[in-house]
Amino acid sequence: MEIKVNNKITLRKISIDDANIIFNKTNEYRESLKTWLPWINSTKSQKDTENFINSIMNSEKDLVFIIKHQLNFAGIIGLKEIDVLNHRAEIGYWLLPCFEGKGIMTLCCKTITDYSFNHLNINRIQIKCATKNKKSNAIPNRLNYFFEGIEREGEFINDKYFDLNLYSTLKNEW
């Protein structure tokens, strides 16, 4: 499955064949990525990345895509915790530092939001961002997601708890 974002950006459903590039790039940018991604420290080998991919490929609650920018791997975006009964999901994302500041993730989040509302019968989408992660928080703000509040100590990263800002949008608001 592939979703075209624009002429430069494509989302492609993740596959086990992506394990090598994902691991190598996360390993290359490990120091900067570990600031906000709780799983970086426990991802020590390509096998760890393969295990992650296998777990989400076999899940009905996750739909994950790799982000390709001009055919280069740029990051990952996906719907997690898809709740079919209640028609809701959460968007999770990360981008390699060399692709930041180009509007790529904002476009990808807009595309995933559109896709969710138009093809997956989703009514509510939420995004959670560490309160101190300004770049990540800028994305739901740019897309006019509604700020609902703070999930106190909602994520454990590098032996510290971080508060999370919770944003959402509804199909009838989009």
Describe the structure.
The protein has 174 residues and is α+β, with helices and mostly antiparallel strands. The protein has one domain (2-170): 3-Layer(aba) Sandwich (Aminopeptidase), CATH 3.40.630.30. The protein is 29% helix and 37% strand. It is built from 5 helices and 8 strands. The chain has helices at 19-28, 30-33, 46-57, 104-119, 134-142; strands spanning 2-4, 9-13, 63-69, 72-83, 88-95, 124-130, 146-157, 160-170. Strands 1-2-3-4-5-6-8-7 form an 8-stranded mixed sheet, sandwiched between helices. Strand 4 (72-83) and strand 5 (88-95) form a beta hairpin. It is globular, with a radius of gyration of 15 Å. The mean pLDDT is 96.
Compact summary:
By secondary structure, the protein is an alpha+beta fold. The protein has a single domain, classed as 3-Layer(aba) Sandwich (Aminopeptidase).
